[in-house]
Amino acid sequence: MGYLKGFEVTFRKLFKGTRTGETVTVPYVKDSGPKREKAERLHGRHVLNRYEDGMEKCIGCELCAGVCPARCIYVRGADNEPDDPVSPGERYGFVYEINYLRCIHCDLCVEACPTEAITESKLFEFSFTNRTDAIYTKAELVVGDDGLPQQLPWEDWSDLAEVAELSSAWVRATAPSGAAAYEGRVAWSGELGFGVKPPEQGQTAIEPSSRTGEDPVIEAEVHEQGHDEHEQHDDGHGGGH
Ligand code: SF4
Ligand code: SF4
């Protein structure tokens, strides 16, 4: 009978609810008040971005599909028509699909993309009732002429400000090459409807330039130079690694 002890909490909650009418089900916050603030790096449903002139950023290279651990991206590339190109490169993605029954929102596709074409928005409130709807096609993923994602019937867009402002937080937050001294330096292309988004200041909250009075790039170069000199110094003493 000892195994019944494992059900203690279950039974206690079950009968408590039955006797008092108290429910143990927490209603979704959508119906009971304001939503909690989303995490700054929340990974929601994807968007395929476009340049400020309307050209698509995707060049159909399939790197995102290759890196996806869930194998949920399907991309096919094609040559651009010289007279009517879809993207600035030679190629563009003419098929692009993401299967949200598989996606684990790991963001690896975003990291792999060489053109910042695919990013994850903060939209996470979408639920579909059939498998076809779960597969987002290129027509649904490419941002509209206003640069916003295209709203599908089953998506909750009650917080439009977040949809508009935070669709590419990963790209804007990450320093190129990972050197912290580059934080705050814009190194990404403009987006249709938004232009060049400013860098986030999540880690320092203060512009590196205002923190030190110096250009962060110069600082990084000085740092690298010092590092090289240090290595040469070590080698000169016969201590090569
Ligand atoms: S977020 Fe991860 S699982 Fe989802 S499509 Fe991108 S790489 Fe695949
Ligand atoms: S989204 Fe990026 S990685 Fe994927 S095919 Fe397009 S350009 Fe390549």
Characteristic key phrases:
single chain; 241 residues; alpha+beta; Alpha-Beta Plaits; 3-stranded antiparallel sheet; two-stranded antiparallel ribbon; 10% strand; binds iron/sulfur cluster
Layout: helices, strands, pairs:
Layout: H1 8-20, E1 46-48, H2 63-67, E2 73-79, E3 91-99, H3 108-112, E4 118-120, H4 131-134, E5 135-136, H5 138-141, H6 160-165, H7 169-173, H8 208-212, H9 216-236
Antiparallel strand pairs: 1-4, 2-3, 3-5
Bound molecules: iron/sulfur cluster (2 copies).
Residues 58-64, 75, 93, 112-113, 115, 117-118 line the site of one iron/sulfur cluster (SF4).
Explained architecture:
The chain is an alpha+beta fold and 241 residues long. It has a domain of 128 residues: 2-Layer Sandwich (Alpha-Beta Plaits). Helices cover 28% and strands 10% of the residues. The chain contains nine helices and five strands, in the order αβαββαβαβααααα. Strands 2-3-5 form a three-stranded antiparallel β-sheet. It has a two-stranded antiparallel sheet with strand order 1-4. The termini are far apart. One iron/sulfur cluster binds next to helix 2.
Give a quick precis of the structure:
It is built from 9 helices and 5 strands; from the N terminus they run H-E-H-E-E-H-E-H-E-H-H-H-H-H. It is an alpha+beta fold.
CATH fold description of the domain at 46-173: Alpha-Beta Plaits
Structural category: alpha+beta
Rounded to an integer in angstroms, the radius of gyration calculated over CA atoms is: 24 Å
Main sheet specs: 3 strands, antiparallel
CATH second-level architecture of the domain at 46-173:
2-Layer Sandwich
Strand fraction equals: 5-15%
> How many strands appear in the DSSP assignment?
5
Separation of the first and last Cα atoms: 65 Å
CATH class of the domain at 46-173: Alpha Beta
Quaternary state of the chains = single chain
Mean pLDDT: 77
Q: Tally the helices: what do you get?
A: 9
Task: Give, in spatial order, the strands making up the sheet with the most strands.
Answer: 2-3-5
Sequence of secondary-structure elements: HEHEEHEHEHHHHH
Principal-axes geometry comes out as elongated
Q: Any low-confidence stretches, pLDDT <50, length ≥5?
A: 207-241
* Share in helix: 25-40%
